[in-house]
């Protein structure tokens, strides 16, 4: 069964450093998402991406965040200058295109720790 | 804004007993409702969804959910719980994104 994969599974970085989180969505999916889950809090939407551009973003997704689909398979989230409060589990998700609300399938997550 | 609420932080049941995880929703328009499960150190796994049609939705691993419009609820159920069902369960509502509830930790004791 196809699944979303994410690398790395864990990342430790120093405050102010740049990090890139990588995701490989399910191959025939056209919508891509990033969510995050701060420890003990709800899963929160960050951004959605379709047709090589951002379709929606939350207020969390400020100028320090960016997303990119550098090739036909990868989808990345970059945090330019990490802050302590960026420590969280980051989930990538993908879904098919369709009229009806499509199911989003999630990867296993990357646990980011900013020191 | 669309939202869901999961009123119980924890649910404890004995193996073989029925399991219910509660969710209520607040939406404008038609609700598109989902249940996901998260096992330790794993991602969110899709269980089932309600878009339209039958109020009883069947999903993976023997789970089902009942959509109740008058009570604005979408409770997750399993007739006979297994120890392996112990996990964190999330209800979510979808517009252009998923908005998740806070999650309910289910513990099934042998």
Please characterize this protein's 3D structure.
The complex is a heterodimer of chains A (115) and B (110). Chain A has no helices and 11 strands. The mean pLDDT of chain A is 94. In chain A, the strands form 2 sheets. In chain A, strands 2, 4, 5, 6, 9, 10 and 11 form a 7-stranded mixed sheet that branches. Chain A has strands at residues 5-7, 10-13, 19-24, 31-37, 43-50, 53-57, 65-68, 75-79, 88-95, 105-106, 110-114. The N and C termini of chain A lie far apart (37 Å). Helix content of chain A is 0%, strand content 50%. Chain A is mainly β and 115 residues long. Chain B has 110 residues and is mainly β. Chain B is built from no helices and 12 strands. In chain B, the strands form 3 sheets. In chain B, strands 2, 5, 6, 10, 11 and 12 form a 6-stranded mixed sheet that branches. Chain B has a 4-stranded antiparallel sheet with strand order 3-9-8-7, with no helix packed on it. In chain B, a hairpin with a 5-residue loop joins strand 7 (56-58) and strand 8. Chain B is globular and about 40 Å long. The N and C termini of chain B lie far apart (41 Å). Classes of the chains: A mainly beta (115), B mainly beta (110). The interface between A and B is medium-sized, with 23 and 21 residues.
């Amino acid at each position: 069964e196809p699944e979303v994969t994410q690398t790395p599974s864990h990342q430790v970085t120093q405050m102010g450093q740049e990090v890139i989180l990588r995701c490989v969505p399910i191959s025939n999916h056209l919508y891509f998402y990033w969510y995050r889950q701060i420890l003990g809090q709800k899963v929160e939407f960050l951004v959605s991406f379709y047709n090589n551009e951002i379709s929606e973003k939350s207020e969390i997704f400020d100028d320090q965040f960016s997303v990119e689909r550098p090739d036909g398979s990868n989808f990345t989230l970059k945090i330019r200058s990490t802050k302590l409060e960026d420590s969280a589990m980051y989930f990538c998700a993908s879904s098919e295109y369709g009229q009806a609300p499509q199911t989003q399938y999630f990867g296993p997550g990357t646990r980011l720790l900013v020191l | 804004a669309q939202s869901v609420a999961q009123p119980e932080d924890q649910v404890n049941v004995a193996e073989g007993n029925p399991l219910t995880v509660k969710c209520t929703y607040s939406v404008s328009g038609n609700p598109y409702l989902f249940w996901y499960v998260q096992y330790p150190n794993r991602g969110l796994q899709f269980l089932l969804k309600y878009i339209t049609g039958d109020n009883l939705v069947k999903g993976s691993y023997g789970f089902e959910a009942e959509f109740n419009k008058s009570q604005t609820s979408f409770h997750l159920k399993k007739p006979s719980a297994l120890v392996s069902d112990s996990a964190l369960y999330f209800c979510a509502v979808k517009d252009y994104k998923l908005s998740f509830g806070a999650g309910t930790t289910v513990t099934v004791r042998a």
